[in-house]
UniProtKB/TrEMBL annotation:
Species name: Christiangramia sediminicola
Residue span, Histone deacetylase domain: 18-287
Gene3D superfamilies documented for this protein: Histone deacetylase domain
Protein name as it appears in the record: Histone deacetylase
Family matches, as PANTHER family: HISTONE DEACETYLASE 12, HISTONE DEACETYLASE HDAC1-RELATED
Glycosyltransferase among keywords: no
A Pfam family matched in the record: Hist_deacetyl
């Protein structure tokens, strides 16, 4: 059964005019239920994770100040969000969704988190809508519990996973692969184990060619026993913050290839949604919904 982390706390309101489309976290499960892709039994509600699981990734002082709402004005500004208790709760619950989804992925082959993909969160700071790095926390959970040894993080959000790269920069047990826009945020990039930088305006053909010529060899080289897939849909031509020019069909084929490859090789995969900032919310929902439709088709 496809298991999906969702919690209504994702609807935390933001100031009017804020560019982060929070409504997608509410609309996406409604769409999946409406069209029959999912049933209520597919969804589970995460809660607060054990603090030690977060501290396996994030520095104690940073997490302590985050919980006490004691970040500096500069730190809050860089995070992109107004700091509040609701936001800090939300970030912890997102991380728990990914942690629990890891176990479901081991059981069923694949699992999803409606939110997550908070790849700009560093060990000691928040950045760009990301306060806690959910997939990094999930990776350490698997390793510390003896559920996985070698992990591959496939980050196909339009923005480089700079926080994830920093967290695992000296760790050979977690391979970080980021394919992203060269000219896009972050403008000072970290060094992943493998970075593929794409020029502005890259379309489906070139995007898929680079991915399909890279991923199979990468998996053969790294031999992971668990995959995290960050499937942001901000690679779309319609995206306000992305600078690539992929179509919804191209984005769908990207997801199909990653999921089919993971399925065929029998490597569990946890998917976190990541970014999506198209002007029309229908484009965001359709592109994200395709990932769930494909997971159902390929695995179940």
């Amino acid at each position: 059964m496809l298991k999906i982390a969702f919690h209504p706390i994702y609807k935390h309101p933001l100031p009017e005019g804020h560019r982060f489309p929070m409504e997608k976290y509410d609309l996406l499960p409604k769409q999946l239920l409406h069209e029959g892709t999912c049933e209520e039994s597919n969804f589970f509600q995460p809660d607060f994770p054990e603090k030690d699981l977060i501290l396996a990734v994030h520095e104690k002082d940073y997490f302590k100040r985050l919980l006490k709402l004691e970040l500096s004005k500069k730190e809050v500004r860089v995070s992109g969000f107004p700091l509040s208790q609701e936001l800090v709760n939300r970030e912890q619950i997102i991380a728990d969704g990914t942690i629990k989804a890891c176990d479901f992925a081991i059981k069923y082959g694949v699992s999803m988190n409606i939110a997550g993909g908070t790849h700009h969160a560093f060990t000691d700071r928040a950045e760009a809508f990301c306060l806690l790095n959910d997939q990094a926390i999930g990776a350490r959970y698997l390793q510390n519990k003896g559920k996985a040894d070698k992990i591959l993080i496939i980050d196909l959000d339009v923005h480089q996973g700079n926080g994830t790269a920093e967290i695992f920069k000296n760790d050979n047990s977690v391979f970080t692969f980021s394919m992203h826009g060269k000219g896009n945020y972050p403008f000072r990039k970290e060094k992943s184990d493998l970075d593929i930088e794409l020029p502005d305006g890259t379309k489906d053909e070139e995007y898929l060619k680079r991915l399909k010529s890279t991923l199979p060899e990468l998996i053969e080289k790294t031999k992971p026993d668990f995959i995290f897939y960050l499937c942001g849909v901000d690679i779309l031509e319609t995206d306000k913050l992305g600078r690539l020019s992929c179509s919804i069909d191209g984005c769908k084929e990207r997801d199909r290839f990653v999921l089919q490859t993971s399925h065929d090789l029998e490597i569990p995969v946890e998917c976190s949604m990541g970014g999506g900032y198209s002007k029309q919310i229908k484009h965001i929902i359709e592109a994200h919904a395709n990932t769930y439709r494909l997971a159902q088709k390929i695995y179940f």
